[in-house]
Amino acid sequence: MTVAIKSAAPGANLGEAPLLLLLKLRTFIALFAVVIFFSFAAHNFLSIENLLIMSRHVALNAFLAIGMTFVIVAGGIDLSVGSIVGLSGMIAGGLILNGIPLGSSYTLYLSVPEVIGVALLSGVAVGAVNGLLITRLNVAPFIATLGTLYIARGAALLSSGGETFPNLTGNPDFGTTGFPILGSSSILGIPLTIWLLVVVGAFAAYLAARTPLGRQIYAIGSNERAAQLSGVRVNRVKMFVYMFSGFCAAIVGLIISSELVASHPLSGETFELNAIAAAVLGGTSMSGGRGKIGGTIIGAFVIGILSDGLVMMGVSSFWQTVIKGVVIVAAVVVDQIQRRVQQRFALQKQAATGA
């Protein structure tokens, strides 16, 4: 009996090892596949101009997906990120155009760095509300963030009566010029948006892999009760991940408003779909406890290239939404397959070692 186990286990391991490797590399394979496909299917897809445009779009998806990754790894979900994009952009636009009225005779105008700071704080504030609802009032993450999705979107619409804040070039007399630089400038030929993504991505990757806070986030997602018993301040960690997600969403809102030199209250609609799709496609488990920032960024490349490629091919936006939904479902299914293969592989390896 012992001899049979020893002879069978190695064969099973050899059979499942290639499958497990393919599952782990699925994001790279998907990225390679979409690049090759659109290189032939879409005219000028690999032109320098188009690559620069796609890099900006990928960066927007990546910012949202990085924040979403921390939330999902901690066992939650954040549906409000798209609305935070719109709200933060409207706050920035309103401050630049209208300032802050102080009575009937005075208006306070903030400098562009101050405007950016206020807009970022608005995203953090919505994230804090999400965190408080989930940790203090025990509202399910799906319901809590669905509620703040509507609240933030409604606040964005109310801020201008549903109108756009146009021409955000600012007024030199009030010291409000320079906002378009955020979305249109480049350093060494690379858009500033990409440099910002490198900074935020490096910070997030370091936080996840090298800090006690990062380990606590993974511990909560793997087993919240065990993490709590081991001394992890679960509520504080959850507050952080939702506030960080709101911060990342606010960055996107600022970049979009800066690129367009205008703020629209409906900016960011359905962006939460892109964020979830990129995170899950990058290997983040919807059940929590597993995910990497590097994989998420690659997933954002897949989603961004897929979206832009479909646009270049003239595919309807309705079909694009359908395809994104299929990608999310497929990514979750593949993740479940990977978990089962890993579990079976681990059991077989344990049996072989024990025998």
General description of the model:
- The chain has 355 residues and is mainly alpha-helical.
- It has one domain: Orthogonal Bundle (ABC transporter involved in vitamin B12 uptake, BtuC).
- The chain has helices spanning 2-24, 26-41, 48-73, 81-98, 112-135, 141-158, 181-184, 192-210, 212-222, 224-229, 234-260, 271-281, 293-312, 317-354, and strands at 100-102, 106-108, 186-187, 190-191.
- Strand 3 and strand 4 form a beta hairpin.
- It is globular.
- Mean pLDDT is 88; it is low at 1-15.
- It holds the Pfam family BPD_transp_2.
- It is an enzyme of class 3 (hydrolase).
TL;DR of this structure?
The chain is mainly α and 355 residues long. The protein is 74% helix and 3% strand. It has a single domain, classed as ABC transporter involved in vitamin B12 uptake, BtuC (Orthogonal Bundle).
CATH architecture: Orthogonal Bundle
Strand order of the largest sheet: 1-2
Q: Whole-number average pLDDT? A: 88
> Would you identify the regions where 5 or more consecutive residues have pLDDT less than 50?
1-15
Overall radius of gyration: 23 Å
Which SSEs are present, and which pair or pack?
Layout: H1 2-24, H2 26-41, H3 48-73, H4 81-98, E1 100-102, E2 106-108, H5 112-135, H6 141-158, H7 181-184, E3 186-187, E4 190-191, H8 192-210, H9 212-222, H10 224-229, H11 234-260, H12 271-281, H13 293-312, H14 317-354
Antiparallel strand pairs: 1-2, 3-4
Helix pairs in contact: 1-14, 2-13, 3-8, 3-11, 3-12, 3-13, 4-5, 4-6, 4-11, 5-6, 5-11, 8-9, 9-11, 12-13, 12-14
EC number: 3.6.3.17
Pfam family, one: BPD_transp_2
Organism: Paraburkholderia graminis (strain ATCC 700544 / DSM 17151 / LMG 18924 / NCIMB 13744 / C4D1M)
